[in-house]
Amino acid sequence: DGGITQSPKYLFRKEGQNVTLSCEQNLNHDAMYWYRQDPGQGLRLIYYSQIVNDFQKGDIAEGYSVSREKKESFPLTVTSAQKNPTAFYLCASSMSPSSYNEQFFGPGTRLTVL
Amino acid sequence: AQTVTQSQPEMSVQEAETVTLSCTYDTSESDYYLFWYKQPPSRQMILVIRQEAYKQQNATENRFSVNFQKAAKSFSLKISDSQLGDAAMYFCAYRRRRMDSSYKLIFGSGTRLLVRP
User: What is the DSSP code (8-state) at residue A70?
Assistant: First the structure.
């Protein structure tokens, strides 16, 4: 089945450690996105990528890094510089960056810093 | 900067009844898209309905419809014949239509919908 997969579903990290969240899509979509969701808030954009080997910062990029070496993969690294990383992380993709195209979301990863 | 406001943290509806979720937004743009997303307990975001700002006709998808008031910058979601499976968080979202680097969706804080059997 076509879709977006995120792994792991739950992730625990000690303070000071970097962790990488996986996002893979087999929809042949050009654009991919990472959002962060905190309790009582909507989603906020961390990074997005319109095409392979290119990505742009979103509203809350500090403490995060990404790569886009393959069309189907857009991993997110949460670095030790991120002050409050405990949150729910959602990856999304769309056919093209065109604003008309629907963004499809993955099931998310819950990151907890111990 | 664009903002999206959902003033109802939680709403409750009796099964088979109708409920309306409110959303207002602020923008200086004239052309944009508005969306309602549903997030069930599984936490997967699902697109419910989409409205293009340049279209005067309100969008409809089966039991879901919107009341789009462009001048008032209001975009409410009406759910008719509510079902238990409609229970979820609902997020209103805005996106600019212009093709530039701002491809992001701007989300409201969400409304939790409870459905009473």
Answer: B
